[in-house]
Structure formats: C-alpha cells, structure tokens
Target: Branched-chain amino acid ABC transporter substrate-binding protein
Amino acid sequence: MTTFHLKSVATALVAAGALTLSAGAFAQIKIAVVGPTTGALTQYGDMVKEGVDTAVEQINAAGGVLGQKLETVSIDDACEPKQGPVAANRVVNDKIGFVIGGVCSGATIAAAPIYDEEGVVMVTPSATAPALTDGKDYHFIFRTIGRDDQQGPAAAKFIISSIKPSKVAVLHDKASYGQGIATAVRDDLQKANIPVAIFEGINAGDTDYSAVITKLKSSGVDFVYFGGYHPEMGLLLRQAKEQGITAKFMGPEGVGNPDINAIAGDAVEGMLLTLPADFTQNPTNAAIVKAFKDKNRNPGGAFQLTAYAATQTIAEGIKAAGSADPEKVAQYLHTAKIASPIGELSWNKAGDLNNFEFDVFTWHKDGSKTVTK
Model:
C-alpha cells in the first residue's frame, strides 16, 4: 500500500473508535491533553490545562459538539523528547482522534510523526520550534501559537530599536526550542550590525553557571538573550547579580513562569521576555476572561488562551465537518478561518498560523508583568 492508503486506513480506524465512543450512553468525544504533569516544567502543563478546561466547560454548557460532550484525557510526557512517542502511542492505542499538545517543542517534535501517520489531529498551543513542521508535509498537525522564527525577530526588533546594546551575549539550553529561538535572535542582531560576542549553550538542569557568568563578565556584554526555560534563566539571573553583572536579560515565553521568582529572587526584576500578546485586554474576550476568573484560573498566562483556542479549533473543526472523523476535521482546518480569543485563526499548508502576535513584556519581582511594547 502507498503511504496515503496506510494513513487513510489508520484515520478510518481512529474515526471508527471515535464513532463507537460517541454511540455510547454518554456520547462523548475524547480529546487527549498531552503535556508535563511531572518534571520541572509542570506549570506549563497547568497553563494549558486551565485553557482547555475552561473551553471544554463552556462548549459543553452550550450543548457540546454535534450533540456530544467533550471529554479530556490527561497524558503525561514530562516535556521530554523520549516520552513524546510514548504519549503518542498511548493516544493511538486508546483510539483518541484529537490531541491538544504537546506543550514543549522537543517532546512535540518527537510525537508528531506518530500522530500524523496514525491520523490523529494534533493542535499544539505552545510548541514554537520551526522544526516541528519545516519540511515535514504533515496533514494532521496544527499550532495555535506562532513559531520561533516569528518570536525571535520580534525580540530582535525590540533589542535593536529600544535597547540598542553595544555588545550582546546569546545563550541557549541546547534543545530544539531554546537553541532555535536563540539562533533566530542572533542572526537578526548580526544583520543589524550589533556585535554578538558570545553564542553558547549551557546544560539544562545544572545548578552552577559560574563558568558562563564569568565569561559574560570578562567579555563586557551589556545585554544577554537566553533561549530556554525558567529554571535555567532564574539561575542565570541570580548568579549574574551575585557576580555584579548589570546587563539586561531577555528570554522567550518559556521563561515566563511565576516559579522563576523563587529561583531568581530580586534579580528577576526587569527581565524582558516575549509572550503572546495580552489578549485578556481585548474587550471582546470579557466573557471568556470572566469564565477563567470564576474558576480561579489565570487567563493572562503564556498559554491559557492559546490552549483555549486549540480546544475551540478542534470543536469548530468537528462541527464544521459534521463528523468526529479526524481526516475530515483536518481537511476542514486547512481551509478554515476561525474566530478565537487570540484573533482569527487560519493555517498554511504546514499547519502553522498565517498570523500571530507576540509582544515584549517586563517581568517584576512580585510576579506581575507589564507590556513594554
């Protein structure tokens, strides 16, 4: 059989499982929510879960989709690349046709070929690495967040126009997400003739970054960009301050976690970061924001509203296709325009959003953030 036929068979089997489920007494459509429920990055999974839960509650309260209720199934991948395929195979074995996740790029990249080959619609609200979709020719893989090559240039543009540093260090955590966005920032800075004195990877999970901090100090950089997540950024900030470094630090949305305050202490004050625009400020989202707050959930985190939009994407896809068949839903999404709290969603052939808005924020030691641009 050709790959197309194998995929069609797999899709039909997943669809059959979904239809069997929907024919049951409770007539539910299952959606797997895949992300970290264990490990160092669980808060990102919590952000996604808050968005999914809020959307599911509102959709079900309004009658569900095609007369069926949505039901979520939580599956842990710990944000680890080696666990991505394990989680994906569980989804397939459980005959679940729709996935929100993964959360981290590495695990999502590792899982995506399985979802696509087995005909499972996957919508990630947070995996930003271009490598997820570049050159893959996927049919079932979508995002409700922009890519690093959209986020990186947004950061670089701000650095060039507003910071105007004389010498920059660009660090990363050697992973798909962190290194990818750091590279994008470095390239744009160099194009603008801003000297990048250091471009270097650090080991995620280490507790002592004194060697690279010493290098920052001796090089005389006045700005540091770090591609990675909050545990490492928090340590870099704290240890840099301890060594008397006054350079401004900036990172991507992966550093925007309230836990960074406990790690960095007062050194976190003034950290810059790119995040999805603060869609909570849009008056048309007032009812959605209230729904979050009524459940004591935070609608203003990095991924809550992108996760809400991912849930909405699947629900609208099923409704428009008139079926819980993942093949029909994927086919619809490739041509769809869906109104969502993060703006109108439409996708290119690769499953990437045609448009997405990143803004620059300043993080404060009390855990709050303010829009800087």
The longest helix spans residues 3-22.
